[in-house]
Amino acid sequence: MASATFLSTLSLANKNYLLLTPTHAYAKGYTNNFRVSNLPSIVVRKEGSVRSQGFVAMQEKGGSTLSDDSRTKTPHVLTVAGSDSGAGAGIQADLKACAARRVYCSTVITALTAQNTVGVQGVSNVPEDFVAQQLKSVLSDMQVDVVKTGMLPSVGIVKTLCKTLREFPVHALVVDPVMVSTSGDVLAGPSILSTFLEELLPMADIITPNLKEASALLNGMQLETVDDMRSAARLLHNMGPKNVLVKGGDLPDSSDAVDILYNGHNFYELRSPRIRTRNSHGTGCSLASSIAAEVAKGYPMLSAVKVAKRFVETALDYSKEIDIGNGPQGPFDHLLRLKSHSQACHRQQPFDPSDLFLYAVTDSRMNKRWGRSIIDAVKAAIDGGATIIQLREKDAETKDFMESAKACLRICHLHGVPLLINDRVDVAIACDADGVHVGQSDMPARVARTLLGPEKIIGVSCKTPEQAEQAWVDGADYIGCGGVYPTNTKENNITVGLNGLKTVCMASKLPVVAIGGIGVSNARAVMEICASNLKGVAVVSALFDRECVQTETRKLHEVLLGSNIGST
Ligand SMILES: Cc1ncc(COP(=O)(O)OP(=O)(O)O)c(N)n1
Ligand SMILES: Cc1ncsc1CCOP(=O)(O)O
Ligand SMILES: [Mg+2]
């Protein structure tokens, strides 16, 4: 029996309501079982407008007592694609990606390909009416959230799909415009292009072309730079899809993999270190189905793309040694190295760098000295305006640490504040914390990323540009840079000063939080080094080695708001 995970209940006019976020409502399938009430949305705005959160109130259909029994809906992706006998791409990749992302995946097969790591040896299209029959079988019976398309090998199949989707609308359509396989074999000829452009693209919530596909959709336009990718994204957006992700994996002369996401208003440049591996067959299919999976869970598109991209990168990185087939392009493994991850099906808030604004780091000795529990310390820091918490409990017994971490997590999540664990990746996994902070002599961030999976937050302590570059390559989310000023909290810790902090910020592609000897008297000076990626300060003693944690946190919060930096 599923336990209730909603934030709170509300009783009004003898009726009970669930209070929960709209995406949570969708992800949990509550919209199927509850009427969305006509109560106005309730908006909780945390101090300093660091994060605002909308909530909706939902009333149970036909009943008055709320319980969560068996109301959890399984997120469901339907993939409409070709089969790859080598199982690196196509339907097989989609199934594995969705399984790895913990989303149910049904399949409509459009073509059979005889394929291996050398290339495509044969293609046999499935007759249109049988594609139609498969679509109807799935969509008339199952509650599909997102349809993801891959190889659509004939005009008739594209038309059949569009017609069926008009008959059975779904929450979102993800179109991977597969035209050429990674081996260079043509999977959908130019005759299909016009139907694609006229019928399918306008229905799409996102299309995910690589450079070759974007060029083919744009009449052979040359795409050689990131600026070209932006132009292509804008032109493709004009054709009707709500979002366009142009994938720059093939961009020459780039040490990073750069993708451009455009939603008609903003461009997002999504960069990640390029992973050099032979085992990349199926990357495009897997990315598109991972995006579909995250959208099916209720993520907004930008978050879905970020998590999906990180997932594929992690899988690629950890599939480097796989040795399958003799051809130039091997498959990667979605599950092999990742299967020990405790990736819960429920969605969690994606990392928001502005959460680093006021980073409260606990200290077991200080709490003991002032006679307070970790839980009381965390509560007080949140009440004072802390935007992220780290449990840095160097002396705690593992069992005690886990128990207090679980209690702190409940409090943090009620307030929308992420909770990270210092050093102890095992504790973070065991209590499903939001992430970890590791230093240069702790578990390497790359290993922590593999253990924690793509969504968890990982912070790394860095004193130098080289360490900052490594943190980025390792898949960290932020850098903790310090000690900025001398501190008694950490022994033998070299002080980097404001200059050292600035040097690291300038070199870092990641957001940075400053740490070490920071408090009310000098926080402003720290923030005024004016580095756009310096997002806040992390503080131990100035909050926790004080009589009233809440008052000290509030004072620091005010100073930071006054500095007017990093809060956006
Ligand atoms: C936000 C943040 N930045 C830096 C540190 C220091 O981590 P580390 O270097 O591993 O030292 P310890 O905290 O483990 O003593 C941090 N904890 N948080
Ligand atoms: C953990 C850590 N890492 C670098 S300095 C430091 C200690 C920060 O503590 P305080 O805020 O009390 O100076
Ligand atoms: Mg450490």
UniProtKB/TrEMBL annotation:
One cellular component term from this protein's GO annotations in UniProt: chloroplast
GO biological process, one term: thiamine biosynthetic process
Cofactor(s) listed in the protein's UniProt record: Mg(2+)
Keyword Oxidoreductase attributed: no
The Pyridoxamine kinase/Phosphomethylpyrimidine kinase domain, residue ranges: 84-328
InterPro entries: Aldolase_TIM, HMP/HMP-P_kinase_dom, PM/HMP-P_kinase-1, Ribokinase-like, ThiamineP_synth_sf, ThiamineP_synth_TenI, TMP_synthase
Domain Thiamine phosphate synthase/TenI: 358-543
Highest taxon of source: Eukaryota
Pathway info: Cofactor biosynthesis; thiamine diphosphate biosynthesis; 4-amino-2-methyl-5-diphosphomethylpyrimidine from 5-amino-1-(5-phospho-D-ribosyl)imidazole: step 2/3; Cofactor biosynthesis; thiamine diphosphate biosynthesis; thiamine phosphate from 4-amino-2-methyl-5-diphosphomethylpyrimidine and 4-methyl-5-(2-phosphoethyl)-thiazole: step 1/1
Keyword Chloroplast carried by entry: yes
GO MF assignments: ATP binding; hydroxymethylpyrimidine kinase activity; metal ion binding; phosphomethylpyrimidine kinase activity; thiamine-phosphate diphosphorylase activity
Reactions this protein catalyses: 4-amino-5-hydroxymethyl-2-methylpyrimidine + ATP = 4-amino-2-methyl-5-(phosphooxymethyl)pyrimidine + ADP + H(+); 4-methyl-5-(2-phosphooxyethyl)-thiazole + 4-amino-2-methyl-5-(diphosphooxymethyl)pyrimidine + H(+) = thiamine phosphate + diphosphate; 2-[(2R,5Z)-2-carboxy-4-methylthiazol-5(2H)-ylidene]ethyl phosphate + 4-amino-2-methyl-5-(diphosphooxymethyl)pyrimidine + 2 H(+) = thiamine phosphate + CO2 + diphosphate; 2-(2-carboxy-4-methylthiazol-5-yl)ethyl phosphate + 4-amino-2-methyl-5-(diphosphooxymethyl)pyrimidine + 2 H(+) = thiamine phosphate + CO2 + diphosphate
HAMAP family, alphabetized: TMP_synthase
Task performed by this protein: Essential for thiamine biosynthesis. Bifunctional enzyme that catalyzes the phosphorylation of hydroxymethylpyrimidine phosphate (HMP-P) to HMP-PP and condenses 4-methyl-5-(beta-hydroxyethyl)thiazole monophosphate (THZ-P) and 2-methyl-4-amino-5-hydroxymethyl pyrimidine pyrophosphate (HMP-PP) to form thiamine monophosphate (TMP).
Protein name, UniProt field: Uncharacterized protein
